[in-house]
Specification:
This protein is mainly alpha-helical. The chain is built from 13 helices and no strands.
Amino acid sequence: MSTSTLSSCMARSFQPSRLERLLSAAAASSLPLLFILLWSSGYVAGKLALPHTGPLTLLTLRFGLAAVVLLAVAAGTGAPWPHRARGWGHLAVVGLLMQVLHFSCIYFALQWGLSAGVAGLLIGLMPLATALGAHLWLAERIGRRQLLALFGGLAGVGLVIADKPLNGAWTAYAVAGLGLLGLVAGTLYQKRFCAHMDLRSGAGVQMAVSALAVAAIAWPTEHFAIDWAPELIGSWLWLGLVNSIGAFSLMFIMIRRGQAGQVARLFFLIPGVSALMGFVLLGERLEPLALAGFGLSALAVCFAAAKR
């Protein structure tokens, strides 16, 4: 058998089968759905845990658990670490923006009466802000289809918010809005400066920095007061292992695969999913306008993802 014939046979033998290609495509397409479910669950878990401890103490537990697991995995698997101080600094900035600022504001807003569904609604405004920020800062192009999808999703979020009166809770809404800005800034900073970080070591550093930052404030203000109720323990494990590690790892993977604005459009689906989880698990009322807004947001995401 000639060398060329042997090479041809080997190439054919190592080509993935049709089933393997289908499974690979199914796994890739399931990432957005899994991300939406994991991210949305964080608001409900936080709402369940906050009656048993303070917001900053809860975040210390959450980030600390995630940091221990991620750093252990990174060390045990030989993950690469940043070679320069600048790389460590970039990871710390992302952690402070995307973790500390974002979740501190959201948890305080939840403690001050904001429902899990409304928290998801406000974070659902992220796609428009991120796409515009990516256009201005990262020079990512915004096409006509993207603009229509963005504003369609924004209209869906607006429908849900329209049936949620403020009832004077301006502080909770303002603080949650600040948390939205932290998430947007962290996403863009991650895309710009940490796009090639290793998920194990990079996320571990971010979580460790975040845990130390919130712990430094939680000790003098909340004294780490904790009621170790089953609700708190279950929520803590879910937030630290599933939400912090799973959801953010999926988010970073999708940021690597696509533009920041494209990834951010998935957040248009989070308001409806968060509201539905809040209705089922917390008894939060789900209004017809919320269902209509969720449907409109879902259509916007489908429109943006459709082939031209």
